Amino acid sequence: MAVGSDNVKDSSIYEFEYLKGLNVFDNLTLLKMWTETTAKTIFPNRRIGELSEGSEASFLALEGNPIEDLQNVRKIKMRFKQGWILGK
Question: Do the beta carbons of residue 70 and residue 30 sit within 8 Å?
Answer without folding.
Answer: yes
